[in-house]
Amino acid sequence: MAASAWELYNTAKKKIGRGDIKLGVDTFRMQLHKGSSNASTLTLSTSLQLTEQVNTGSYVANGKTLTSNNWAATGNASIMFFDSDDAVFSATGSNMTSIQYAVVRITGAQLHLVMKSKLSTAIFTVNQNNTLTVQINAAGYFTLA
Questions:
Q1: Per-residue pLDDT tens digits for 114-139
Q2: N or C terminus: fewer CB in 10 A for the chain?
Q3: SS3 for 16?
Q4: pLDDT at res. 27
């Protein structure tokens, strides 16, 4: 499966610029959404607007907290990147079905959407007792140069 590049939601760009979303400070979560979701609509602004979150297997509503959130300089101090540890989702109890999107949002009262990736060109299933690892690129989700 070849995932698409991470795309920032339109309002996330403004909220990052204004400091409403604090990279490397806020707590972020990754959610999985079905192929029938509206996750690819970049004009959405909060996770409450998202439809069709995965709800099968042992998937926990609202996804996983991302660890080691990092907003840091690369080897070249003029380039910054946003990164986290890979997210691992396990299918225990039953299959996780119809997966196609991963969405990153902040936690807390605001529930701001940050970015999304289309994990595959077609929906897919993670069979019971298997895992899905969303591996973050070595250069992070995105860079700012």
A1: 999 999 999 999 999 999 999 998 88
A2: C
A3: helix
A4: 94
